[in-house]
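Final report, Chapter 2: Outcomes

The project's central promise was a pipeline that accepts a single protein chain and returns its three-dimensional structure in a standardized token representation, suitable for archiving and comparison. That pipeline is now operational. To close this chapter, we reproduce one record exactly as it appears in the project archive, with the input sequence first and the structure output second.
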Amino acid sequence: MSPEQTPGKLLIFTAPSGAGKTTLVRHLLQKFGQLAFSVSATTRPPRPGEEDGVDYHFLSLEEFRRRVAEGAFVEYEEVYPGRFYGTLHSEIERIRAAGRTVVFDIEVKGATNIKKHYPEDSLAVFVAPPSREVLFQRLRDRSTEDAESLRVRIARAAEELEYCHRFDRVLVNDELPAALAEAELIAREFLAI
């Protein structure tokens, strides 16, 4: 195993929806070959262009509940009514067995649960918007929701912003090039490269 590999580590990126964590995680995955993405499971239907096993493990509500009962999840949550998200033990074990560092793009409560489960092996980064107003505008600009689901998403984002000080680092995503550079620096320090 080369000195660049740090098996067993977990790099957690979390944020309210619309703060930009997915963009940062995708950039880091392209930049650092020793990182591997933890694919979450969800009961929501795929969006156009999403692939099962790549973007998410898309499960029926019945299958998700069966796996919960079997203890298959490190963490899971009903993020929106009837919409569950979770991290499978098997996903983390698959990446660690390959000698790679697990990277998460995960909602806030799930991130706190993973951090509790792996306190010594993880670094949790909260991606914050420059302001609440900017975040809410980003969510409106997506145009992927009807009025009611947008209202629920904005209310949840407002609640999640209160969690920012529970994490190891806060990265403000105001100007994308600066946020990408800061994310790279955080990853380099964590991976000791």
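Archive annotation: The radius of gyration is 16 Å.
This record, like all others produced under the grant, will remain available to the consortium after the project formally closes.
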